[in-house]
């Protein structure tokens, strides 16, 4: 559990768990800290993929199926134990959606709420277009790939940090391209509410398709900022208040 999940503040009496899925090239350092900001009703888990942080010595995951299987097998007991919600940002949105589909199909488990951020809906033409992009072998074209997959945001100035981020991002981009959502799975698979967030200065995402993926309500919020708008304190505060209210309404 500790290998896969970062939980900075355990809350055994929490009513619900929020499972967070980070964006490409990143780890758990930002989203795991939300555990200190939510009240005692919500316990936050942040997913840590191989090849980073405490899993630095492990090889990067080769396909999304293996990622989904690991997350599901490690967390199944906790997901059966009490209600849960998912938050995914950018690449993390697709990962969270893949896990949610697997849980629903194999175990009949469904989040009380899906919070999706800065990503095309997986039933859109824009999503399929990004999936078909040929990734470059070198680092020279990586900036273009980051703009396509990651949206508009400032990159680290530190050379070592940039190199590490670029390597991890490229591996996550390869992982993203192994995502496969069958049309049969897309036939209104969920009944929970879905909320979609994005940054006003980010690129435009095709997000309306989320409405077709649940029989529940779907809402959309645009917050000021670029692709990493969620790191702004004011936006972070809005997200936490909104997600707390939505989770409590879904219980």
Helix content: 25-40%
H/E series, N to C? EEEHEHEHHHEEH
**Terminal Cα separation, in Å?**
25 Å
Strand content: 15-25%
Compute the number of helices.
6
According to DSSP, the number of beta strands is 7
When the domains are counted, the total is: 1
CATH architecture: 3-Layer(aba) Sandwich
* CATH H-tier superfamily: Alpha/Beta hydrolase fold, catalytic domain
Spatial order of the strands forming the largest sheet: 1-3-2-4-5-6-7
Q: Residue ranges: pLDDT <50 for 5 or more in a row? A: none
What is the C-alpha radius of gyration, as a whole number of Å?
Answer: 17 Å
CATH class: Alpha Beta
Overall geometric form: globular
Could you explain the architecture of this structure?
It is built from 6 helices and 7 strands, in the order βββαβαβαααββα. The protein has helices spanning 64-81, 91-107, 125-131, 142-150, 159-176, 233-250, and strands at residues 5-6, 16-21, 42-47, 84-89, 113-117, 193-199, 218-223. A 7-stranded mixed beta sheet has the order 1-3-2-4-5-6-7, sandwiched between helices. α1 packs across α2 (91-107) and α4 (142-150) packs across α5 (159-176). It is globular. 39% of the residues are buried. The mean pLDDT is 91. Its EC number is 3.1.2.14.
């Amino acid at each position: 559990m500790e290998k896969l999940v970062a939980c900075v503040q355990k809350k055994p009496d929490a009513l619900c768990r929020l499972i967070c899925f980070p964006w490409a090239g990143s780890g758990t350092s930002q989203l795991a800290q939300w555990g200190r900001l939510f009240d005692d009703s919500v316990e936050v888990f942040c997913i840590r993929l191989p090849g980073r942080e405490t899993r630095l010595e492990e090889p990067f995951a080769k396909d999304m199926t293996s990622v989904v299987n690991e997350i599901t097998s490690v967390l199944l007991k906790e997901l059966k134990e009490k209600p849960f919600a998912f938050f995914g940002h950018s690449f993390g949105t697709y990962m969270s959606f893949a896990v949610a589909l697997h849980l629903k199909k194999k175990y009949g488990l469904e989040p009380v709420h899906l919070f999706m951020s800065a990503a095309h809906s997986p039933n859109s033409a824009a999503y399929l277009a990004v999936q078909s992009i040929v990734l470059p072998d070198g680092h020279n074209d990586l900036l273009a790939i980051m703009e396509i997959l990651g949206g508009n945001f400032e990159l680290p100035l530190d050379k070592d940090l940039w190199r590490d981020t670029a390597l991890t991002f490229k591996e996550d981009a390869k992982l993203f391209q192994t995502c496969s959502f069958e049309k049969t799975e897309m036939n209104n698979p969920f009944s929970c509410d879905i909320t979609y967030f994005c940054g006003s200065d980010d690129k435009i995402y095709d997000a309306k398709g989320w409405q077709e993926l649940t029989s529940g309500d779907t809402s959309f919020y645009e917050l000021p900022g670029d692709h990493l708008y969620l790191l702004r304190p004011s936006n972070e505060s809005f997200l936490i208040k909104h997600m707390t209210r939505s989770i409590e309404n879904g219980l």
